[in-house]
Amino acid sequence: MKYKDYEKTKEPKRPLIKNCSKAFLVGGFICVIGQAISTFYMYFFEFTEQTVGNPTVATLIFITMLLTGFGYYDRIAQFAGAGTAVPVTGFGNAVISAAIEHRTEGFVQGVGGNMFKLAGSVILFGVFSAFIIALIKTIFSYLGGAA
Predict the structure, then answer these.
(1) CA nearest 24: which of 65, 75, 85, 91?
(2) SS3 assignment, position 50
(3) Alpha carbon of 87 to those of 22, 76, 105, 145: distances in Å?
(4) CA-to-CA distance for 62 and 92, rounded, in angstroms?
(5) Are 13 and 19 contacting, i.e. CB atoms less than 8 angstroms apart?
(6) Confidence (pLDDT) at 145
(7) Integer Cα distance of 66 and 60 in angstroms
(8) What integer pLDDT is reported at residue 79 of this predicted model?
(9) Residue 98 and residue 67: Cα distance in Å, rounded?
């Protein structure tokens, strides 16, 4: 018990407000970029608000993968912390980072085999959550229509 108390006195204080502010600002800036991409697609390619989501997400992931491949996204993430991990860009970074890390093992076993190790759980639980929400919505709409 004494050691834990001693350890707490020597542990450096984390700048919580500063870290949260950086994460908020960078994450918000990523969202502003996403909104700009959505507006661009709606204005120039005649997408609607309902259909613009998929190309916007794909574009954000593509940009993140390029930035990760050139080594810039890791620097941004080092600065912003969770601000880069929470938006969809964190998914793109996770996929391409694993692919880059294992590229020396070959395209099939290295890149292909390891690319979705980290991101696979995100895909799995995202699809499962979407299924559960759709199931609940279907049940409620059926009960609402039957009444």
Answers:
(1) 85
(2) coil
(3) 14, 13, 30, 36
(4) 7
(5) no
(6) 65
(7) 10
(8) 94
(9) 14
Q: Token pair of 69, please? A: 């491949």
- Residue corresponding to tokens 């834990």: 4
- Mean pLDDT on 69-94: 87
CA angle (35, 39, 56) in 5-degree steps? 60
Q: How far apart are CA 68 and CA 86, in angstroms?
A: 16
User: Measuring CA to CA, which residue among 115, 48, 95, 87 is closest to residue 76?
Assistant: 87
- What whole-number distance in Å separates Cα of residue 81 and Cα of residue 84? 6
What is the model's pLDDT at position 139? 92
Helix (H) or strand (E) holding 133: helix 117-146
Average pLDDT over residues 93-121: 75
Cα torsion at 138, 142, 145, 147 (round to 10°)? -140
Per-residue pLDDT of 24-66, as tens digits, reads: 999 999 999 999 999 999 999 999 999 999 999 999 999 998 9
